[in-house]
Amino acid sequence: MSKFLKALCLGTALAALPGLAIAGDAAKGEKVFKKCAACHAVGDGARNKVGPQLNEVFGRTAGTAEDYKYSKAMIQAGADGLVWNESTIAAYLAKPKDMIKGTKMAFAGLKKQEDLDNVIAYLASFSSASPAAQDQSSAEPAAAEQTQTADASAAAAPVSATRDGGVFGLGREATEDEIAAWDIDIRPDGTGLPVGSGTVADGEPIYSENCAVCHGDFGEGVGRWPVLAGGHDTLREDRPEKTIGSYWPYLSTVYDYVRRAMPYGNARSLSDDDVYALTAYLLYLNDVVTDEDFELSNENFTDIHLPNEENFIADNRADEEHYAQKGEPCMSDCKPNAVEITMRARILDVTPGSVDDDEAAGVGGVD
Amino acid sequence: MSDTKGSPPQNLSRRSLLKAGLAAGAVAGSAGAAKAAGDPLITEVQDWNRYLGDGVQARPYGTPSEFESHVVRRDVEWLTASTESSVNFTPLHELDGIITPNGLCFERHHGGISEINPADHRLMINGLVDTPLVFTMEDLKRFPRENRVYFLECAANSGMEWRGSQLNGCQYTHGMVHCVMYTGVPLKLILEEAGIKTNAKWVMPEGADASAMTRSIPMEKALDDCLIAFKMNGEALRPEQGYPLRLVVPGWEGNMWVKWLRRIEVGDEPWHQREETSKYTDLLASGKARRFTWVMDAKSVITSPSPQAPVTHGKGPMVISGVAWSGNGRITRVDVSIDGGRNWKTARIDGPSLPKALHRFYLDIDWDGSDLLIQSRAMDENGYFQPTKNELRAARGENSIYHNNGIQTWYVKADGTVENVEVS
């Protein structure tokens, strides 16, 4: 708690300075905010998501956004007098867990001062309690335009030229670096695996920091976020649990997907070794490996097989009975008796906002 | 009726809308007794008939009338954990013809809508090609292009209905489909430009979005009818549909139509990406799962009457209308039943009949005002006709989710309201 108190005192002192201007650029901050948008909403109609909505966050006492379930630590911080302003938000966003030990926010922190300034300016534009920010916003468009013009003149305008070869001679040859930057896919045979390694033990803190907020501490899934572990022998049951261990055929898909798309809202931010460690940890959560010292690498990757690999088959829909019923379908007296209603819509009104979540729980999702 | 301004109906519930409709009918019915007075909408000069309206350029990009503001895509909030990886639904019950307006095409994103300046967009072709290439949007617009009308249906369309009736409205039960005219370059031309190696058997499109969406597609399909599209219904793709560039994979499940298309890799084996292993595979009762179930089989649904489009008139002439489509070609016939599938009548298909596109059908009936159980059954040019939901469940079990093309039943009650049901 001592670090937090220090930050709090500092924050209070800074906030007391009259006319403090926000240094950031709200337009640029909007881009930085994309890192936050997976969990936080701001602007018209913003609602609580994984994290609380951030309208009017400036001047808000910590842990008091309506209807949001905070960590105990955050509620305590609010009770201790923490109020969000430029400096307290800056301190928090730089190293959230240092400032509020026990915060639910999994985000590791913004490393660049510039990003911090910009995202704060962006957030300030949704708070009436920060006149300094609003003054700033009127000056922003001109500045943003200037930067854009400069960028445009610095980079060569994209032109479409012809080349030798090909049918139309269009496009240009891709460079090796360009291909390496985008071609990161992995196949089950190991094609595409980068050189690297990571252990189960290495993976655990990476998972806790980046993944647990949605997927749960043990891969059990929070709310409707995907369940990653468990579900063994449930595929023939009434409510199958399709996890990496119970359903996914190939480990390569785990590595590939985590590397290209996770953490949600901050893709491509993990190192190749981090992804090996996370993949090893996910194997551990699924009991495919049991040793915390197990190290997964490009060398032993294809030795690992997931339990359900053999249970995938080709599309054989055409063998189903009803596919054979070609020709003239029945047109009259097709059913012997008067038709009875056997099932009625469970949810009679799906107008957004009218459905009770509990009532709807258990209804199959889209994916 | 004296409120000549009228009011947009979005504030009315379905039920009150229905009442309003019935009330209006009653007024019209008694009008004969007051011939001298007449309908004030006719006998009195209306504002719009007297005063000037907006001039040109008041609406530089035109949008629908304020009285149509209820015609929007809608989502089902509890379906997914976040709106950035979620889906909303086309309001099929409000549409007619076969073309979906661009702003009403359902959305399915896995990492939110990428906002990409076309000047910053690149398409790379790499892998088993003679020359890996990079194209700008300008480059792509120098290839010969085609215009094609295709439906796009999510494999999970009607997935929530697999176990039984769930959602009351064809927007929700069938609204993960849309149909537009694409303008684009045949994928074949792009692949030939790079030169495909002889051992190339698969391609993998990849999106530039935050999910970097990927799917494996067999080379045969890639060279057949896939397009790299930059326009829909004549204008640029909408951001939520992959602006500035998307893949078009006619007749195959929507997830493969990669949006914000930035790369196509050519290979000799499939990649087994997340969206073709953990998702979009069809779990059978045996515990086995089908993979690479690409084609969307023939399907149809009655869009009106339907739960969100109740009957607001009394007995007499009634238009039953709906859409039908098949990933295997043209729809040749749609039959409609009003007694839950005991007896069928062949409906009238009106408008263009294009392969792998929506078809519009109508059955014009004389409603006797009694309860109806209405169904439609599509048949495609291969003689395949739509199965019942019971046939699908018997063949695949309760947990297949995807590729539910079973016959839909709507229960039209004497009071005009409509409910989603299943029947014996």
Automatic annotation (TrEMBL), chain A:
Keywords: Electron transport, Heme, Iron, Metal-binding, Signal, Transport. Residues 24-127, 198-286 form the Cytochrome c domain. Residues 133-158 are annotated as: Disordered. The keyword Disulfide bond does not apply. PROSITE patterns: CYTC (PS51007). Gene3D superfamilies: Cytochrome c-like domain. SUPFAM superfamilies: Cytochrome c. Residues 1-23 form the signal peptide. It comes from the Bacteria. It holds the Pfam family Cytochrom_C. PANTHER family: CYTOCHROME C (PTHR11961). This is C-type cytochrome. The lineage of its organism: Bacteria, Pseudomonadati, Pseudomonadota, Alphaproteobacteria, Hyphomicrobiales.
TrEMBL record, chain B:
It is an enzyme of class 1 (oxidoreductase). Residues 110-271 form the Oxidoreductase molybdopterin-binding domain. Coiled coil: none annotated. Its cofactor is Mo-molybdopterin. InterPro entries: Ig_E-set, MoCF_OxRdtse_dimer, Mopterin_OxRdtase_euk, OxRdtase_Mopterin-bd_dom, OxRdtase_Mopterin-bd_sf, Sulfite_DH_SoxC, TAT_signal. GO terms for molecular function: sulfite dehydrogenase activity. Residues 1-36 form the signal peptide. CDD domains: bact_SoxC_Moco. Residues 292-408 form the Moybdenum cofactor oxidoreductase dimerisation domain. It holds the Pfam family Oxidored_molyb. Keywords: Metal-binding, Molybdenum, Oxidoreductase, Signal. Its EC number is 1.8.2.1. This is Sulfite dehydrogenase. It comes from Roseibium sediminicola. The gene is soxC.
